[in-house]
Fold these 3 entries.
Entry 1:
Amino acid sequence: MSLGGSDSIVSRRTWLKRLLAGIAAARLLAETRLKSAAAGEVGDIPRDTGPLTIRVTRPFDAETPAREFVSFFTPNHRFFVRSHFGPPPERIAEAEWRLRIDGLVEAAKELTLGDIRQMEAVTVTAVLQCSGNGRAFYRPRIPGVQWERGAVGNAQWTGVRLRGILRQAGIRKNARHVQFQGADRPPVPSVPLFTRSIPLGKALHPDTLLAYEMNGRPLPLLHGAPLRVITPGWMADSCTKWLTDITLLSEESDGYYMRTAYRLPLDPIEPAMAGESDRTRPVEAMVVKSLIAAPPEGATVPLAPVMIQGAAWGGESKILSVEVSLDEGKNWQTARFVGEEHPYAWRQWQLVWTPRAPGPVSILCRATDETGTVQPLASPWNPGGFLWNGWDRVTVTVGG
Ligand SMILES: Nc1nc2c(c(=O)[nH]1)N[C@H]1C(S)=C(S)[C@@H](COP(=O)(O)O)O[C@H]1N2
Ligand SMILES: [Mo]
């Protein structure tokens, strides 16, 4: 885990103040949208949203129902969608689209999509997960999109290595962070741009991509077409969509979405926001997590063997085991892995359970990664509601 430079350490007071200001700005944004919706403007909801559960309509934020996660790859049209402002206000024609690389480089560059497609194509299978996935499970509740279990998916991403592009431009010695800017724009000027940065080390990793394909198809607009960042093993806030600008910096990117939002307290924090520590770090790597895809929540299952199945992932860490409990966590049984294994992808697992009596039963699961970290019953509370990885739970009724 990288803690960032001392520059990234903001006093807790300042941080909380900015966080609250950000929440106020988000509320203003929501109100503006409600007004324009009332004025009869066209919404952002794509026509075919059948398979997704909508959490916010403007912009369109929607999650995948957990029952879809029985498949190894999450199909593009069933993949969760999240952005702060929706796709760019004007769709850029592919021929006019440019990627600019500047800042602490030897020579600033401008690349066309053609230039990028001529470079060596690399494919990585990786889980993409919103930092706020599972926010709805924190108590006390936390403002923000109330994601439950499905702001996550597993896909094949094809594109070029970011490091190839950075090296073409020439990385200056004092460059430490790589900033990403997309073409999307906030609808009101008081809301800052979604500008993010990652440390140079992650940017130079051979698996960090600028992707133009998702699951073997052209990257859909909602998922960042024509080009997006993929930081395998890291939470999706680093995966800038609609990418147009890369800037090499000596410091972490300035601005609300890097310095205030998407940060975690380094020391445990009480929901009452007590505590005297003043250090935070950006949300980066994923934490060990698993979920139950089948049987689905609320299902009625027969009094006969039932196949329990799901997925588990650990970001940059391999999954060692998945365990299932049918007695509220008193006893755990080890599930068996099935299907493919790739770094950064999720691992599918199964367990056959023979119910003993009719009635309601909760199925719980928890994963352990190669560092020995076990998914906790509940994740430590934090003001942004990030990185939820508590045991997953599905309640079913055993029929007579
Ligand atoms: N340009 C841009 N990129 C962005 C965002 C955004 O608001 N603007 N949101 C980020 C967040 S918070 C998430 S969770 C992922 C969601 O990616 P998806 O919609 O492809 O699932 O995109 C990331 N990339
Ligand atoms: Mo997110």
Note: Confidence is low (pLDDT under 50) at residues 1-9, 31-45.
Entry 2:
Amino acid sequence: MTEPAPVGLQARRSDLEARLGAVHERIAAAARAAGRGEAPELIVVTKFFPASDVRLLAGLGVRRVGENRDQEASAKAAELADLDLEWHFIGQLQTNKARHVARYAHTVQSVDRPQLVSALSRAVAAENQRRADEGLPARSPLGCLIQVDLRSPAEHAGDAGPAHRGGALPADIGTLAGLIDAADGLRLGGLMAVAPLGSDPAPAFARLMELSMVLRATHPGADVVSAGMSQDLEQAVAAGATHLRVGSDVLGPRPALR
Ligand SMILES: *Cc1c(COP(=O)(O)O)cnc(C)c1O
């Protein structure tokens, strides 16, 4: 990840500024169309793009960024530690990476199983011990969103085990919410989902909103609904999402390989 020459950097800045502005306009238009007073929060998904892009985005007013791989996110967060950024982890997370993620993440949006809840809670305790040893203040509680698998039961049935896209079954939300709520160092924020591939996102997001309403009946503070990406942000705004996760429409097409 070498820094581009200043001229390249200027051009990239203009490019990002234009794309970011267009995305903000789409969000505002969708919010108006839905009669929403407040537009949802934008999380810019910077996976596969260099830290230099994240720095430019911060200069353009972006505060929330999303990443889906620990190794890449750790490196960027360390390189950009001077910036006031909120790092949202949005990818499938192995329990052995929890310690890393607790160092830099504001929120893990992809909590999908009990073992991950306990691993994250232990990770926050370890991180706070590390900070105490260095005379640093404790971190804030780690935000946790429960990722929900919105596919139909028939689609679940065709699952190839752990290879599926991630997410807890709707029936397991209550149990996971209770575990997160009871765990030290974690704060239950709400729900996250990715619309199932190849079907209309609107009914999937409507289902997610229903699940959020059920969750909020017992956990009123868990009011985050993270839904909507480049392709379906309008449907997510219409459904009532509080947070959008937009990557390619801000940064451009992701490099296929690296
Ligand atoms: C990559 C990713 C996004 C952003 O997708 P785009 O189509 O690039 O906007 C959002 N959410 C998750 C979970 C992702 O992995």
Note: Residues 8-251 form a domain with the TIM Barrel fold (CATH 3.20.20.10).
Entry 3:
Amino acid sequence: MKTQADLYRELPSVDELLRDPGVSDLAHRERQSATADACRIVLAKLRSEIAAGHLDESKLALALSGLSSAVHAEVNRALSYSLRPVINASGVILHTNLARAPLAQDALDHIAHTAGGYSNLEFDLESGERGKRDVHVDRLFRRLLRKEFAELRVSGRAGAPAPTQTELTQGSVSTIVVNNNAAAVLLALNTLADGGEVIVSRGELVEIGGSFRIPDVMAKSGATLREVGTTNRTRIGDYERAINEHTKLLLRVHRSNFEISGFTEQPSIAELVALAHKHKLPLMEDLGSGALFDLRTIGINDEPGVLDSLRSGVHVVSYSGDKLLGGPQAGLISGRENLVKKMRSNSLFRALRVDKLTYAALEATLLAYVKRDYNAIPVLRMMQTSKQEITKRAVTVQKNIQAGESTRSTRIELIDGESLIGGGSAPSALLPTTLLSITCEQLSANELATRLRSSDPPVIARVEEGSVLLDLRTVFPEQDNVLTQILVRNATVWKR
Ligand SMILES: *Cc1c(COP(=O)(O)O)cnc(C)c1O
């Protein structure tokens, strides 16, 4: 019986391993340092297995015979991408962990077309002088947000201050782009309320995933939080009583990921607008998932869009580029020209600005909105897909899987379910769908879900009550076949 010390002595050194014919060949082709690193990692793993008592003499001999292929596998892993495409069968359209909004084809093309070379990102081709990077998207935002907004404010509804003549003729809403909505909130608060107080309802002191907490962002911005009301009830009088000479801003935060129901009260936007007007204070709304298209068309009624908010007289709104907008990660601030201008000249803006890839993707996404080509934007397409269409695809996938002999012990059923818009849109924003429900005798639902995640490409599914659930709403139709093959491949194993 060999001792652990004996076993350790059987391990080659890194240098010896590098001279192994199977490995030296690799070191020649791939980079030398990657191979040396791989040898170290493989040997360290063996050492820790010996230490843990997992390897006896014969198991170690087996491991040693497979040493060069272990090094090969490790080099492959180290030199391949870690960021990979996955098939999202979870039915959550805006899944923050799965990179939120997939980009439109035009956005990808525009990135490829402009980012591989030089571009006029900050160069005015007419004058030959330095230009501004915002012009590329601000012109489109103006077009998408101006008309109705100006019209409404002329009519003076919702207590909005009347627009000045310059605001009207120049287009009253301007937009700037920063890295994400968290950055947008930081920039807006720092610009509008540094050294002063911001009034916000206790019912809106939200935490969004990834530790974005309104109170923390507020502290970093230099503004002081003035909480009013209670978690479930805040009245307009609570805001009014809190206003003092230090007050710089009224803030409304969209309750993105939770609902308060029961005994609740929240002032309407119109009331907040009127209060802001009375005290000559700016009103900002952090929308989170600002939509540029009318969600009512897909049956979602309680989610305010960017235009709804601006129309009702909110001075500044902030929202994400990669939530309901369906574009790249970005934070957008749209609102009164004079306020946005101040944010642009804040030195923080320079630190939070975005690069050419984001501008290219955003410009292409906004152009689709201008052309009203909503189908070009994947998340809008997914939201608009009917349950009937999803059922049809699910039936095909089910048939193709069942065509194989191997699935007798596997049950695949179609059941009614709901897709989730997600990504900080109204938590109640659900869309009816048809789910593929899979159960099999030999594997637990969790084991099956794990196998699906380790397939290539990985498939992300839901597990509920002992079944694996797949929602084709978030699977691209061109992925249906690959998904079927992955399911069949795993079905073969299930039978054993
Ligand atoms: C999602 C969200 C944020 C954070 O936006 P990011 O773009 O992820 O930084 C902030 N506020 C609200 C209300 C949100 O829903």
Note: The chain has three domains: 4-78, 105-373, 383-495.
